[in-house]
Amino acid sequence: MKVPVSLTVNGERVAAEIEPRTHLGDFLRDHLRLTATHLGCEHGVCGACTVLVNGEPVRACITLAVSIDGAEVKTLEGLQGEALMETLKAAFHEKHGLQCGFCTPGMLISAWDLLKRRRDLDERAVRVAMSGNLCRCTGYQGIVRSIMAAAEKVGAAAPSTIKEPLR
Amino acid sequence: MGIGAPVRRVEDRRFLEGKGQYLADLDIPGTVDLAFLRSPVAHARLKGVEIPEQYRGQVFLARDIDFVKPIVAVGKAPGFKYSEYPPLARDKLRFVGEMVAMCIARGRAAAEDIAQACVLDFEELPAVWDMEVALRDGAPLVHDDWTDNRFVTTEIKAGDLEAVKAAAAVRVEKSLRMGRHVGVSMETRGVLAHYDNRLGELVVWSSTQFPHVIRTVLAQSLGISESALRVVAPDVGGGFGPKNNFQPEELAVAALAMKIGRPVRWIEDRREHFIASPHAREHRYKLVAYADKAGRILGIEAEVMVDAGAYSVWPWTAAMEAGMAAGIMTGPYDIPVYHGRAITVCTNKAPLGPYRGVGRTGACFAIETLIDAVARAVGRDPQEVRIANMVQPSAMPYRSVTGKLYDSGDYPECARRAIAAIEPEKVRARQQRGEPDGRLIGFGVASYTEQSAHGTAEWVARGLPVVFGYEPALARFTPDGKLILFVGIQNHGQGLETTLAQVAHQELGLPVSDVIVRHGDSSTSPYGMGTFASRSMTMAGGAVSRACATLAEKMKRIGAHLLQAPPGEVRLADGKVWFGEQSVGFAEIAEAAYLHPERLPTGEEPALEANAVYEPGRSTGAFSYATHACTVAVDPGTGVVEVLDYVVCHDCGTIVNPMIVEAQVVGGVAQGLGTALYEEIPYDENGQPLASTFLDYRIPGPTEVPDVRVLHMETPSPHTRFGIKGMGEGGAIAPPAAVVNAINDALRPLGAEINVTPVTPERVLEAIAAAGAAR
Q1: At what angle do helices B761-774 and B735-747 cross, to 10 degrees?
Q2: What is the pLDDT of residues B470-481, one digit of tens each?
Q3: Do the domain assignments include residue B464?
Q4: Burial class for A83, CB neighbours closer than 10 Å (0-12, 13-18, 19+)
Q5: By mean pLDDT, which of A155-159, B89-93, B332-336, B359-363 is the weakest?
Q6: According to CATH, what is the number of the domain A81-157?
Q7: Confidence of residue B775 (pLDDT cuts 50, 70, 90)
Q8: N or C: which end of chain A has fewer CB within 10 A?
Q9: B637 and B563 in one domain?
Q10: Residues B352, B254 share a domain
Q11: Same domain, B568 and B626
Q12: Is the pLDDT reported for residue B742 higher than 70?
């Protein structure tokens, strides 16, 4: 049995008939060929598949695509050229925030969400905020340094006025 | 941009844009997904598989691929028992997760539906679920034709132990256990195989660390020529050892693609990775140290027992883990007498394979906790005893009691620097004061040597089916003056696309951005051994250096000719050949070499490429070394351990890229902290694995790993090009030892001692309770 689903993915309307059990990760990867979203555990722990659904970070592997019918989804591909994301990518390059690259898209999305909300971050705060994303290569040091460098850069350019508590 | 520069990585861009191409990202038209039906039980006679009528044609059993040969990995040690590892089980099931059938469909979920609909008929046997169970008299046999459940036992007897026993003032005993692990690359394993009709070759994509070697063994197993087989490792999302074996899944998927003539892919799910990918560690130690009254160690007796699971992995064999642990036991210490025994046990668990640190993580845990115990027995500071027992720099090169040749370095100085950086006097003062929250503070140290880039002599000595003695490189300019390096290693996070370009820069003076590194494809690169054993920078770096040096001479000859300069008076810099202030660019030289041979000097061959093969000057390995020091806080109420500070002082010879080296160390430490504190797959008495998700198998997250401080020393190896030593694994070797020493330091006021990893809160509380009961 297939059911219709329609989403806005990276600004484009997509409509498809899918099995209800299709999770958002598989839908993005197999149906739309958006392979920046990686599947690392498919049980909602590792964070490699983190994408934005209506602006909030979500684990694509435990989100059924049909359950967010009508939503707006953004993946790493859809943030190409976006100012904060480009700052983050430059920082990950400069501070060696990636090794094998598999967890990187999820790290970038989570970090992007963090810096949208908070810029007055110390090392501990970054570690706590990023604790939903696992990396096996870096020991997190490069990732934490990258995010702090990006926070400093965007913070200097346009001080954040939003001071939400850490989610 | 050359050797020693912190060049930013050229491979970053594709990953940062989400354009890396990992196995699951491949898009081969017509691909069907494969799900394995795996054994739900540890030990059983397999009687049959019931396939629902509607799925006939989509389910394949061992008999459907009976043209393949089983995987056989028998070591050369006397008495090593023969076993066969069939890709699909035939008549017996030997571990939970063993493959029984292949189910194919459009989409993984549909393939899993089929696997679930099949019914296994089996007769369960008692499970051999632990080493002690395996070695009991009358234990059930994992392999029916064996006499007992031992793959092999090997012994090293160096020096007169009886004399040492007579002379020793103190005798210290220790029993240790290290838990069973899994590698946990963030990208799981995976295989995609299809037939290329035009080239008449089977193409096997695999998330592997050594595609060329896989081509060799896969061709043998499939009964085809290597010339009709191409193996490609695309972007690989972490390896760490478990992707450095010949996987039965590789054989099964390739065989099925050959049989049905359609592209087939299998993407391992996380549960499969936990229960069925090659496991790691699970060591038990019985140790005795004999020392004089100052704590100088006179001799050691060690028994290492390793649970290698049900089958012997190719090419390492089941015995690698125990053999390496026993063989490097004396570590950085000058210990004249050593008797070691390595017992490799066969059980109903997933087969054990290499994982970052191989053997040495356990050996370091053993010797380093033993050193602390000796120091306590003689009433001296463990760090003084540690340093006093070390091989002194004046003794280099030093032949260890187990026959290893330590090439260079200053072990005591390295230890002193790491210890000084952790500021022991401040830790001691803090211990004296006590913590406001009641936690206990401790400080611990561990040192090791890491044999790296070992070549022919070492692998021959181990008696493996393949001798990983060398590494090749083909350096080829394009007609527009860019350089492409074709290498046989495989880059999966180590930054080799950058560091090998740095080597090319060193020889040729061209910008790193003008160098492209191609690897991972048996059809594009010269035959090479792959990336493991901390070998790629040394071995492939040496090969790239040689090939580029040959090209540099040719560039100079052609450049001098074009500049009308004497060949001996030109130099290479900034992608040009220079004669005084005059220069000619590499693009112009390459154009002449390829498209205008009439411009070349008389007798100069056209084209601009060079092949080289590199072997280190001595093939016994370049020994990196390090001392790790850490401070921990132990909560005696909850048993929770927090690592407060962590310092590594290490020496990996000449550093090619300090940014990458530091990050490799830190990444290794994070994995080692997992070994020390969090990671374990226990098995119950039915042989069921008790951890199969990230909820019950915890790997360190951002808040579990401290900001590791890394101090570098640089003693070039006398045996390798540029003096490079390998360092990829080292970070993961010392953390269990350093952390356990620190925990035991913290627990001393309570009289409690930990001798097992991972040090879970439960184990801390048990140790405290046991100490309380003993008082």
Answers
A1: 40
A2: 999 999 999 999
A3: no
A4: exposed
A5: A155-159
A6: 1.10.150.120
A7: confident
A8: N
A9: no
A10: no
A11: no
A12: yes
Angle of helix A104-117 relative to helix A141-157, nearest 10 degrees, comes to 40
* Together in a domain, B443 and B489: no
Among candidates B188, B668, B699 on the partner chain, residue whose Cβ is nearest the Cβ of A134: B699
Interface of B with A in 168-187 (CB under 8 A): 184-187
Q: State yes or no: pLDDT of A65 exceeds 50.
A: yes
Q: What is the dihedral of CA A6, A10, A11, A14, to 10 degrees?
A: -20
pTM of this prediction? Answer: 0.97
Residues of chain A in contact with residue B185, where contact means CB-CB under 8 angstroms, are 100, 102, 136
Distances in Å between the alpha carbon of A152 and those of A92, B472, B736?
13, 44, 35
If contacts are CB pairs under 8 Å, which of residues 645-684 in chain B contact chain A?
A: 659-660, 663, 666-671
Q: pLDDT by residue (tens digit) across B512-559?
A: 999 999 999 999 999 999 999 999 999 999 999 999 999 999 999 999
A3-9 and A72-74 as β-strands: parallel, antiparallel, unpaired? parallel
Name the CATH architecture for the domain at A3-78. Roll (3.10)
Assigned domain for B137 exists: no
Q: What is the pLDDT of residue A155?
A: 83
Nearest to B703 among A42, A92, A131 (CB): A131
CATH number of the structural domain spanning residue B71: 3.90.1170.50
User: How many domains in chain B?
Assistant: 3
**Is B153 contained in some domain?**
no
Range of the domain at B548: 470-614
B462 found inside a domain: no
Q: ipTM value of the model?
A: 0.97
Residues present in chain B in total? 775
Q: What is the CATH number of the domain that holds B660?
A: 3.30.365.10
Give dist(CA A73, CA A34) in Å, integer: 12
What does the domain layout of chain A look like in residue ranges?
3-78, 81-157
User: What type of residue sits at position B357?
Assistant: G
Please list, in sequence order, all residues whose beta carbon lies within 8 angstroms of the beta carbon of residue B3, skipping any fewer than 6 positions away.
B502, B503, B506, B654, B655, B656, B722
Residue B110 shares a structural domain with residue B234: yes
pLDDT at A157: 56
Residue to test with chain B: of A18, A94, A100, A122, most B Cβ within 10 A:
A100
What single DSSP character describes residue B392? P
Residues B576 and B589 in one domain: yes
**Average pLDDT over chain B, rounded to an integer:** 97
pLDDT tens-digit series, residues A93-113: 999 999 999 999 999 999 999
pLDDT of B172 over the 90 cut: yes
